[in-house]
TrEMBL record, chain A:
Domain of life: Bacteria
The keyword Membrane is annotated on this UniProt entry: yes
Protein name: DUF4367 domain-containing protein
Segments traversing the membrane: 48-67
Keyword entries, A-Z: Membrane, Transmembrane, Transmembrane helix
Amino acid sequence: MKRSDSFDEVKQLITDTPVPQIDVKDQVLDRLRERQNKKEEFRVKKRMGLIIAACMVFSVTTAYGAVKVYELKNEKGEVVSQITHTTAEPGEGQHKTYSQLFNEVRESVKPGNAAAVYIVPDNPNKIVSFFQIPITSTDRAVIQKEAGDKFTFPAELAGGFTFKDGSVQHEVIRDYNKEDFYKEAEETKKDVIVKELKVEPTFQLIAGTYSNSKGDVTVRIENFEKVKYSAAEAGPDDTVENVKVGGQEALYQLTNLKGENGSVVRVDKSIQFYKEDKKLMVFVSTSSPDIAKEDLLAIAEKLVK
Amino acid sequence: MDKEQIERLVVEIKASGSLEGFGMVIEQLQQPIFTYCYHMLGHRQEAEDAVQEVFIKAYENLEKYTEVVSFSAWVYKIAYHHCLNLIKRKRIYRLVPFLNNRVPADDREEGAARVEQGQLSAPLHRALSTLSPEERNLILLRVIEEKGYEELSVLFQEKPATLRKRYERAMKKCKNQLISQKGGEMSEAFRLIR
């Protein structure tokens, strides 16, 4: 039997594997419209800035009910730009998109908390999502409190990188049943069903960002108490090396992230090592082109102790 | 809508920026692009998110589409690079016990919503996950989309003969993985191969 025949069997398996049906058209178009509006807003602002810089101008504000019209005139008094600003709240019955409703739910959840949400409009696949709002702070003490005695986030890293901000995530306890959401939505006729979720008391991930004149470095610790092993992939144009940090094994990885045309748009560098006694995986990483592997190694050397 | 109609529509959209027209293109291509991303990533929600990002990139970079290859092939190329970046960033946790459904949130953008779906559960996805993203890409475009080596050659700037060899090697690897998942025994799908 020829090889191509045997591949036909593999092909059949691939084509026969069931694939869920999706419909993302409305979501994509909503997002594109939103992006276009933002670009237009920026374009108008930029144009206003240029005119203001070039001419003596003044602005007039008038109000018609809930609509304000802003005008920008040139030296001759001619209107060269006009922005109509609708300040009224959306009226009842106005359709809200999935993303608008989702953002409203997100904004209602406090940092550190998590929720599961079922949104009825624009959700033909009846997807129930869950999310967590991480704790973020520019106060190192807040981040250190979450890390406890497992890891110390110093005020300054080797190389003079000083603490800028940090974020903390906990593992979400997903003790919910999708059917309950569907049932409640059906019974109450509500568009949004939300259930607060608990999170594990110990952190899952903490990241602290440090900066100096060369750029930012992130120190990320991941709780490996429940993790048997982790796997990541590197491509042929990436670099992976065994290195030593404080006498122990570590990995250096350089990853090229590419844009839609295949050109490199960002280069990430990281050192990772494991703290056996604390069951922690530690990553020291940067996207700054001015921060070298040696800089990361020097930082990791101090952190491994 | 056939391929030629899509090409004509894309030319119109390039000139007018019509989102309605682009919506028609999405309707035609979303399922095949999703199928590709689903097999590349082995995860339904990530694939669905990826499809959205791919179409947004396609629309916003439409002026770069030069019609040297078909529009769908161009979108696949965007999908390939997007998936490649996701795979590189992705960290797959193996929890103890493995089948525990409490998969930890990953380290993407803060609070990124995740949707519960099975991950790498199908034998096919387990086999595909052992291939490099480049190999996966080649198999999927050849098998599902039936792209010829000539078109792939233009798309990925590799010689057709090189792609052919890589494809055959990848298919062999995939086949062996599927057999080994059955403990070396033949699955029904391979009963006829030997």
